[in-house]
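Researcher: Re-running this chain for the archive, since the previous output was lost when a drive failed. Same request as before.
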Amino acid sequence: GCLLRVETADSSQPLLSLLFSPPQQRLFHISVEV
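Model: Regenerated structure tokens:
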């Protein structure tokens, strides 16, 4: 199967907030495992 994991530095912030933040504020890591 496929696993998509999103790790955020601040889990209290919505993911969409992080996605639309300036690049220097993108404190999250997305890893994809197949």
